[in-house]
Amino acid sequence: MEIKVLLQKLRVPLGFFFALVFFLLSRPDGYLLLVGAPLIVAGLWIRVWAAGHIRKSREVTRSGPYAQSRNPLYLGSFFLGLGFSLQSGWWFFPPLFAILFLAIYLPVMRREEWELQRVFGEEYQQYRQAVALFWPWPGRTVESAGRFSVQQAVRNREYNSLLGAIAAEGILVAKMLLFH
After folding, report:
1. 155: burial class by Cβ within 10 Å (0-12, 13-18, 19+)?
2. pLDDT digits over 122-164, tens only?
3. Residue 167's CB: how many other CB atoms inside 10 A?
4. Cβ(75)–Cβ(69) under 8 Å?
5. What one-character DSSP code corresponds to residue 132?
């Protein structure tokens, strides 16, 4: 099996495994919780914004954050993970998270691009040439005509990210209160 396909299938189970390790090793305090919170909120906001625009497998989405990043859901996840890793209490967690995230998700993004190219052809190729893969860059954007839809975000089950972030933050707060 190709490594990109394997990583695509394993990214969620690996995420749960790394989350377990994170919770076991973390030693948060009030200051660290405050430092990471803005990145977590930003990550959630980006994910909800993206989920309210994307219509998976039906179109090449160019509206909202998709006008600036071909992978804003992953960008939001990156901010979420970075925020939580800052809250961990270990200096090596943020760079370790960034390395693991990129090692897992860059091949996944490339695999998904291949699939989108196969389905949407030239339309996706033009979008790909105009918009950055992950991190938004000035000048790498397209016109955005679509509108955000709360119903679409719900259809895409983005509430799971919010519930997961609330649960994770609750675990960190409980751990801080119990062990500090």
Report:
1. middle
2. 999 999 999 999 999 988 889 878 899 999 999 999 999 999 9
3. 10
4. yes
5. B
Tokens at 55, concatenated: 């219509």
Q: Three-state DSSP class for 90? A: coil
The DSSP result for 82-123, as a single string, is HHHHHHTS-TTHHHHHHHHHHHHHHHHHHHHHHHHHHHHTHH
Pairwise CA distance, residues 67 & 72, whole Å:
10
Strand ranges for 8-58 from DSSP E: none
Q: Give, rounded to a whole angstrom, the gap between the first and last alpha carbons of the chain.
A: 46
* 69 φ, ψ (degrees, to nearest 5): -145, 135
Short-list 158, 152, 161, 105, CA closest to 133: 105
Residue located via tokens 């691009």: 113
pTM of structure = 0.92
